[in-house]
Amino acid sequence: MPKFRKDAKRFAEVLLGTEPFAKYKDKFSIRAVETPSPQSGVNHPHQDIHTRSALSVTYGAFNSQRYALGYDNKKIRDAAAAVPYEFTAILMNDSIYGGGGIYNLYITAAVNNAFQEYLFVHEFGHHFADLADEYYTSATAYEMNTESKEPWELNVTANPDPETIKWKDIVTPGTPIPTPWDKKKYDKHSIEVQKKRVEMRKAKVPEKVMEKFFIEKRKWDTELLSNMKYSNNVGAFEGAQYKAKGMYRSAANCIMFTRHDQFCPACQRAIKLIIDQYTK
Ligand SMILES: [Zn+2]
After folding, report:
1. Residues of the chain with CATH 3.40.390.10
2. What CATH number belongs to 2-129?
3. If you measure from the C-alpha of residue 129 to the centroid of ligand 1, how many angstroms do you get, rounded to a whole number?
4. 3-state DSSP assignment of residue 92
5. 22-49 pLDDT, tens per residue?
6. What is the distance of C-alpha 40 from the center of its chain?
7. Residues 137-160 pLDDT 10s
8. Residues with CB under 5 A from ligand 1 (ion)
9. How far is the CA of 41 from the centre of ligand 1 (A)?
10. Apex CA 156: angle with CA 211 and CA 230, to 5°?
């Protein structure tokens, strides 16, 4: 429990240090609820690790190795009911990369991984503001329809029309819509990385090796995505929500796209709307 309290405090600070949460941090109150488990860590069916934890959280949700959820909602609500709450984060005392976040339900996040802070904030974006994933090259547990209908999430669009795009009012003046970016280069590298990731998971390499691999990928992504002509502009960048074509995100990089540390302007605005809904 002392470790849990320390972890909870750290994640609260990370979240409230990320914009736009940082700007409105006085409007948040965060409480930690202690739920001791008989064993350390959570269940990992893909790795033959079988653990029973207080909230029955398990990796391998929807047969995705990195996706962690708890299916016993009553148990989760009973624990959370110790305090008044609107949003819920379940910290997993685990070192294997993973987590999950569902709008208005809860998030899970591993806390002993090199990417723990990114994971927490990314999943919280799903849970708090229904942000869509902006990535599209990694394997997911979902099958998306092939038509590009306009999604309801505020950070992705199937409508790259400069006159009617849903974040029209925040487009940086002079930015072409759709916005050119080094997509070919990004896709080629990302697809290779994803293949290798699957092989490494199959071979059950140590988590530290996976972390090193993800750190290199993040470095590569950051270098490419922050040095393009429109890197700092709001526009419509093709590739989002599991689709390489026909779906667009508002900025070159975002915490919902890569393991970046900031939300893009469309995500920030969506979060702000929810903050207003609860606090105004
Ligand atoms: Zn975003």
Report:
1. 2-129
2. 3.40.390.10
3. 11
4. strand
5. 999 999 999 999 999 988 889 999 889 9
6. 24
7. 866 655 666 666 899 999 999 999
8. 155, 254, 256, 264, 267
9. 31
10. 75
